[in-house]
Specification:
By secondary structure, the protein is of the alpha+beta class. The chain contains 13 helices and 40 strands.
Length: about 725
């Protein structure tokens, strides 16, 4: 019934990224040759053991908030001219409207919104950014911003998806709220404009009515999000030109109950109890029933017949065709509950061919309507039919599907369990992030079926909570390649799982990732400069993918999701001279004064010798194949006070660049000094690395030049990049409004 969910086809991942400096890192896996010799990979402590007895004079500082996508890095030159210059920054690809939308969106969603905007083409960036900037009502903005951030870019750009659905989704959240008595949307203003919404609902606890406020996470992901599980949201003719948040409450075929008429009478979400509640099918509606009772009764009466015909995936079509099994009832219940502002999710036992729902009230609780005009089950774990609860199955796993496609195992609520920890590495021992681990077990109807899946994090790890007394097998899809290489191949990982058991497996893929190869470099002599590097890891954004169907019979398409994790992440820090920076740019082995994997907030001082060349600081996320990293970077350049050398000058023919004042409202003067006439280009960039305009592009006479500018730009840090042949200079300035 649900075998379409799984495919061995890999998500399409771009094979190459071309950097502006000509570097072409290959992210595809390279098959291991039998004569391959593992390259040297070192964790170097930066200039360990050196005592700092010099007096230093601060020359320049730079502080940036960086968002580094997978396979990317940022580079800065230090030393020459007592300056810190930006050498390379990934182009954000954001259009002006997207930047403006980020400025007005709630702070808590900006990082994911930035990440998703980067994955949209410019036309769709403008469409969705405009919705955030100018919503139909101000109170809709946080819901719209969240959906733009967490509906996948593949769905947002799909031919069957109407962008106006996001506005209708927000509108009917609040319109439905006006008609519901057991729940209310509440809006909050946070510090610094960090506003958010959630719901307060009423339950009965030991005879008393208690009001509870839902944590915002559950409001946004399990009420606001317009996707339920494996369907692609629609609002076109196929679903009768209405979104389910409107259709299910306000439309009903003749002879079937209208949900809004019934749900108006509900005063409580449910009566809280640890005892499973089983309400018989065919019961009458009355004014004393809870919201969960009413919605379950409505679903049973709306879909009274077992499945026949086309097995629709869209809730509106299910409600109109009036037949379905557990899959159709799951989709209908999830949509109806969310239309009534009840946080609801979908759960699956894939290998055992059964699905149902859960609702949230200080924890997740089971919720199911039996097929064929059946009973409503509330907080009843027996519906997984596991032997531990009197059923006839040994459940291999129970998987919860968050709206955007992220899945997790929740088997412990329904069965005795064991734990499986899997780590995926390449053949150099480097962790492989973004690898999909498919776990199989013996299927309910014979053969082997997928039981669950998960994706590895930036350390190559994945965790599963599995059922007992089952065999398990695995297959891995990764950005480097599959293991086993046969798409239908599986390898046993657990034999007859035991309750309380902990199982561990490390898998070395038969590939290695393209990652810089480096070794230590030592310098001697009098230190001319010192650079202080302050790395504050703010977050990582993990990416996975799932499959969605548009309609009946559609094989579906893959779409990505993101999951932000605060205060974690990892990047590599390299410090090297210009010769080795050229080798690094060419993908060749290089030497580094500092080469260290940063996994925690770090401050490093590095002393630089008077070699006459520039030095480069590189913050690299090239190890990660699918994970983005956010961090605050601080660079401070100091010159040794004992030296009489004020600056290390290069060839006098190379132009120099400065701007004054450094802080202005947009009016400033750019100063160029050319040793000889040459062809120059001068471009303006924002702090994300997005090119805003070209100020100069042409031949210039030798000498000093002044260029007045008057920029109508928002407050922030900006960069000027001057290029003259292979050489470049960067100057930074700040606009304050």
């Amino acid at each position: 019934m649900i075998s379409w969910l799984i495919s061995f086809q890999l998500l399409s991942i771009p094979g190459k990224t071309v950097f502006t400096d000509g570097r072409i890192p290959d992210v595809r896996g390279i098959e291991l040759a039998t004569t391959y010799e593992e390259p040297l990979q070192l964790e170097l402590s930066p200039q360990e053991g050196l005592k700092d007895t010099y007096e230093w004079v601060l020359c320049d500082t730079l502080n940036l908030a960086l968002h580094l996508p997978q396979q990317e890095r940022a580079a800065f030159s230090v030393g020459r001219g007592d300056q810190i210059n930006m050498t390379y920054m990934p182009d954000s690809g954001l259009v002006t409207l997207a930047v403006e939308a980020l400025d007005v969106a709630p702070q808590w969603v900006r990082d994911e919104l930035f990440d998703n905007f980067q994955r949209l083409d410019s036309t769709y960036q403008e469409i969705y950014a405009q919705m955030i900037i100018d919503p139909p009502e101000e109170r809709f903005r946080d819901e719209i911003a969240f959906t733009v951030a967490h509906v996948s870019p593949e769905i947002l750009q799909d031919s069957t998806f109407d962008p106006q659905l996001l506005l209708v989704n927000a509108e009917f959240l609040y319109r439905n709220d006006d008609s519901l008595d057991f729940v209310d949307i509440v809006d909050y203003d946070g510090p610094g404009g960090d506003y958010y919404s959630t719901v307060c609902y009423r339950v009965q606890v030991e005879g008393d009515t208690v009001e509870r406020e839902l944590e915002p996470y559950y409001y946004y992901f399990y009420i606001v999000h317009p996707q339920l599980s494996d369907e692609s949201p629609r609002m076109d003719e196929y679903v009768y030109n209405k979104f389910w948040r409107e259709y299910l409450l306000y439309e009903a075929d003749s002879g079937y109950p209208l949900l809004m008429e019934k749900i108006r009478s509900a005063r409580l979400l449910w009566v809280v109890t640890d005892t499973p509640q089983v309400l018989p099918g065919g019961r009458e509606f009355d004014s004393t029933q809870t919201a969960l009772d009413i919605i379950g009764n409505w679903a049973s009466r709306t879909v009274p017949e077992p499945a026949s015909g086309n097995r629709p995936i869209q809730p509106n079509v299910i409600a109109h065709e009036h037949n379905g099994n557990c899959g159709e009832l799951q989709d209908l219940l999830a949509a109806a509950c969310r239309a009534c502002l009840i946080p609801t999710t979908s759960v699956f036992t894939l290998a055992e061919d059964h699905v149902w729902n859960e609702f949230y009230d200080e924890g997740w609780h089971e919720y199911q309507v039996d097929l064929g005009f059946g009973a409503t089950h509330i907080n009843d774990p027996r519906t997984a039919y596991d032997h531990d609860h009197g059923g006839g199955k040994e459940v291999s796993s129970v998987m919860e599907w968050r709206s955007d496609g992220l899945v997790r195992t929740v088997t412990g609520h329904y069965s005795s369990t064991c734990s499986l920890f899997v780590k995926v590495e390449d053949l150099r021992g480097l962790p492989v992030d973004g690898a999909r681990i498919l776990l199989y077990s013996e299927g309910w109807y014979g053969g082997y079926d997928v039981s669950c899946w998960g994706f590895t994090d930036e350390l190559g790890r994945a965790y599963f909570e599995l059922g007992n007394l089952r065999n398990f097998y695995f297959h891995i899809n990764s950005p480097l390649g599959d293991y086993p290489s046969d798409p239908s191949g599986i390898i046993q990982i657990i034999s007859y799982s035991q309750t309380g058991g902990h199982y561990y497996k490390t898998v070395a893929l038969p590939y290695f990732a393209a990652f810089p190869v480096y070794e230590p470099q030592e310098e001697s002599g009098f230190p001319l400069y010192k650079v202080k590097i302050d790395v504050d890891l703010r977050y990582e954004i993990l990416h996975g993918y799932a499959r969605a169907r548009r309609n009946t019979g559609d094989e579906g398409f893959y779409h990505t999701y993101c999951e932000k994790v605060d205060d974690v992440g990892s990047v590599y820090l390299f410090v090297m001279d210009s010769t080795n920076y050229s080798l690094y740019n060419g993908g060749l082995p290089f030497r580094a004064l500092v080469a260290s994997k940063i996994t925690d907030d770090t401050v490093i001082d590095v002393r630089l010798r008077p070699s006459g060349s520039r030095y480069f600081v590189v913050i690299s996320n090239e190890e990660n194949l699918t994970t983005s990293v956010g961090l605050n970077l601080g660079l401070s350049l100091y010159r040794n006070k004992l030296t009489e050398v004020a600056e290390v000058r290069g060839d006098s023919r190379i132009p120099e660049l400065s701007i004054s004042p450094l802080f202005s409202r947009g009016k400033a003067t750019i100063r160029l000094s050319c040793g000889e006439g040459s062809r120059l280009s001068l471009d303006l960039y924002d702090v994300s690395g997005r090119k805003l305009s070209t100020i100069l592009d042409g031949q210039m006479d030798g000498g000093d030049h002044r260029i007045p500018i008057d920029l109508n730009l928002p407050s922030g840090l900006y960069f000027l990049r001057l290029k003259a042949g292979p050489e470049e200079r960067v100057a930074k300035f700040v606009i304050v409004r």
